[in-house]
Amino acid sequence: MWAPDRMKPVLFALVLFAAPALAQTPLTAEEFDAHVTGRTITYSQFGGIFGIEEYLADRQVRWSVAENLCQYGSWYAEGEAICFVYEYDPTPHCWTFWLEGGTLRALSVNDLPGAELTEVERTDTPLSCPGPDVGA
User: Fold this and answer.
1) Which partner from 18, 42, 68, 114 sits 20 to 30 angstroms from 131, CA to CA?
2) Phi and psi at residue 42, in whole multiples of 5°?
3) In contact, 12 and 82? CB cutoff 8 Å
4) Domain assignments of the chain as residue spans, ordered by start
């Protein structure tokens, strides 16, 4: 026989255990900005280094996938996503970001659906981006 009073503890337990999953909402643009501006973040994907991005003032960025080779760009919010455009590729690259134990994580929205990036290092050290004529 079904007993509504006996179901209350079960429902409470389900809500209690589901609460952390529900709390995993993407960062807002303001939260993302506060976490990254003035910092250089190294991201990994599939166990290897994916790239390094330096977050400058006014939502400007420098992105590098190889030493001394940088692309300049900017980011903007689009719904819950943070989208990036770069000088050599005007196609937006959008990600949802969230913090997990103080570590930034990102999930691709449009480029590689399901692809995930994880912050492996965050520093205040700028990227090394020498100009094309340096040392010539």
Assistant:
1) 42
2) -100, 130
3) no
4) 26-123
Q: Which structure tokens are listed for 117?
A: 């990036």
Q: In this structure, are residues 106 and 91 in contact, taking their beta carbons and an 8 Å threshold? A: no
Identify whether the C-beta of residue 84 lies closer than 8 Å to the C-beta of residue 74.
yes
Instruction: Give 69-106 as a DSSP string.
Output: EEEEEEEEEETTEEEEEETTEEEEEEEEEEEETTEEEE
Lowest-pLDDT choice from 4-8, 12-16, 69-73, 119-123: 12-16
Alpha-carbon distance of 127 to 11, in angstroms, equals 51
Q: Kindly calculate the radius of gyration of the chain based on its CA atoms and give it in whole angstroms.
A: 20
Q: What is the pLDDT of residues 54-104, one digit of tens each?
A: 999 999 999 998 877 899 999 999 999 999 999 988 899 999 999 999 999
Question: Distances from the Cα of 19 to the Cαs of 16, 58, 76, 83, 132, in angstroms?
Answer: 5, 35, 29, 28, 52
CATH 2.40.128.640 fits 26-123, yes or no: yes
Q: Is the pTM of this model over 0.90?
A: no
